[in-house]
Structure formats: structure tokens, C-alpha cells
Design goal:
Layout: H1 3-15, E1 33-38, E2 43-48, H2 61-70, E3 77-82, H3 95-101
Parallel strand pairs: 2-3
Antiparallel strand pairs: 1-2
């Protein structure tokens, strides 16, 4: 496993400790993380969305994600880009998340 793969795994683990305030699911399994890019210098760029533009944590969630990712060992910096395209749908959720919520 490469250093980048190992770092990506650590970042995903950190993201799995951030929960949506309205659902009992972490943002990674919920499907809110669209992309994790890591450059050669270990700068990380996260592309994410929220379940709705009217989400009550729209202002705070991206900064929380950035802080948690920046705190991962070996990460030099973290930048979070909040996007609305493609729009979030339940199909983006992990199978485990859909089962937990009773969505089949």
C-alpha cells in the first residue's frame, strides 16, 4: 500500500467520526464526501456536499471537516470545497447506511 493510500485511509477514518446532525450517520457513509485529492506534498482537497443547501450546519460543517482532516498525521494542509452538483441523493449512501435508515 502506498503512502497516499495509507493517508487516504486515515483521512476516511477521520471523516467517519463526523456525524450529520440530523441523521445517526457519519458524513462519509452518508455519501457527502465526493472526492479526496492528495498531492505530493500531502496537501488534501476534499470535495463534499450536504444533504440540503438549507442544512443547519452549512456554515460550520465544511470547516469542521477541514479541521479534522488537517489534524490527521502527515497532512500538510486541508481545503474543503462545498459543492451542490451533483445534488445529494440516497443512492450516494453506503449500503450499510441505507440499511440502517431502512432505505432499500
Amino acid at each position: 500500500m502506498s503512502d497516499t493510500d495509507t493517508l487516504r485511509k486515515k483521512i476516511i477514518e477521520a471523516l467517519q467520526h463526523i456525524y450529520d446532525p440530523e441523521l445517526p450517520l457519519n458524513i462519509y457513509d452518508l455519501g457527502l464526501i465526493y472526492k479526496i485529492d492528495i498531492d505530493e506534498e500531502k496537501n488534501v482537497r476534499i470535495e463534499m456536499t450536504l444533504t440540503s443547501p438549507n442544512c443547519p450546519v452549512a456554515d460550520s460543517m465544511p470547516s469542521e471537516v477541514g479541521e479534522k482532516v488537517a489534524a490527521v498525521e502527515s497532512v500538510k494542509s486541508a481545503y474543503v470545497d462545498l459543492v451542490w452538483d451533483p445534488p445529494f441523493t440516497k443512492e450516494m449512501m453506503s449500503e450499510e447506511a441505507r440499511l440502517l435508515l431502512g432505505i432499500f
